[in-house]
Write a structure and sequence with these properties.
Length: about 220
C-alpha cells in the first residue's frame, strides 16, 4: 500500500490547533475527513481551507447522548478509515467504537500519563508543585486516558508558569509529536500488537533525536 493511501479521520470539538498541525505535517497519511460533535468548532475551517471533507453533528433536542454518539460512530464506520485520530475531541468515545476500530483509535492528552488523566491538567500540575509536565499520545481503550502509551514529550515547569503559559508550551509539543506518531503508524513502524506498543528501531532512533520519550521501551 502506498503511504498516501493510508487514510485517517480526525475528530475535533474546538479550535483545531492539533488538526492544523496534522494537515501541515502529513507525509505518509491522508486526512479523509474531519468530524466534529460541535457544529461551531472553529477547527472545521482548517479542514475546509485544506479541501478536506467535514461533517458536524448537532445533538437534537431531547436526543439521548447514546443515540447521538451512535450516529457519529456509524459515520466513522461508513468511512472505513485506517485510523481514527482524536484531536481535542471533548466527548468520551463509547466502547462500541473502540471495539469496531480495534487498536485503531489514538488520542493526545496534555499530561505525562499515567499522571493527571482527565481535565484541567495544567492547573493540577501547578497545584501539586510538579517540575515536569508534557503530553502523551496513546491508543484508546475503554477507560479514560488509560490506553497503551505510544510516545510522550516533556517540558519543565517554570517557577513563573501559570496555566496559560504552561499550556502554550505543552501545546507546542503536541504539534510536533502527534503528526510524527501518525506518520510512523502509517509507515508501519509503530504498531499495537496484542495490547503492546511495538516500535521499530528506525522510529526509536528518530524519537531520541527529536527528544521524545518512548515509555514502552524504558525499564
Amino acid at each position: 500500500m502506498q503511504p498516501q493511501q493510508y487514510s485517517i479521520i480526525v475528530l475535533i470539538s474546538g479550535r483545531g490547533s492539533n488538526l492544523k498541525a496534522l494537515i501541515s505535517q502529513a507525509r505518509h497519511y491522508k486526512i479523509q475527513a474531519v468530524l466534529s460533535n460541535n457544529p461551531a468548532a472553529a477547527g472545521l475551517e482548517h479542514a475546509k481551507n485544506a479541501g478536506i471533507s467535514t461533517l458536524a453533528f448537532s445533538r437534537a433536542e431531547g436526543e439521548k447522548l447514546s443515540h447521538f454518539k451512535a450516529r457519529i460512530r456509524d459515520e466513522i464506520c461508513n468511512l472505513t478509515p485506517k485510523l481514527v485520530v482524536l484531536a481535542g475531541y471533548m466527548q468520551i468515545v463509547e466502547p462500541e467504537l473502540i471495539e469496531s476500530m480495534q487498536g485503531r483509535v489514538i488520542n493526545i492528552h496534555p499530561s505525562l500519563l499515567p499522571a493527571y488523566p482527565g481535565l484541567h491538567t495544567h492547573e493540577r500540575v501547578l497545584a501539586d508543585g510538579a517540575t515536569r509536565h508534557g503530553c502523551t499520545v496513546h491508543f484508546v481503550d475503554k477507560g479514560v486516558d488509560t490506553g497503551p502509551i505510544i510516545a510522550q514529550a516533556a517540558v519543565d515547569v517554570l517557577p513563573t508558569d501559570n496555566p496559560d503559559t504552561l499550556a502554550e508550551r505543552v501545546l507546542a509539543c503536541e504539534h510536533r509529536i502527534y503528526p510524527w506518531v501518525i506518520n510512523r503508524i502509517a509507515q508501519g513502524s509503530i504498531k499495537l500488537e496484542g495490547g503492546t506498543v511495538s516500535i521499530e528501531a528506525s522510529a526509536r532512533f528518530e524519537a531520541t533525536q527529536l527528544g521524545f520519550i518512548l515509555p514502552a521501551l524504558q525499564d
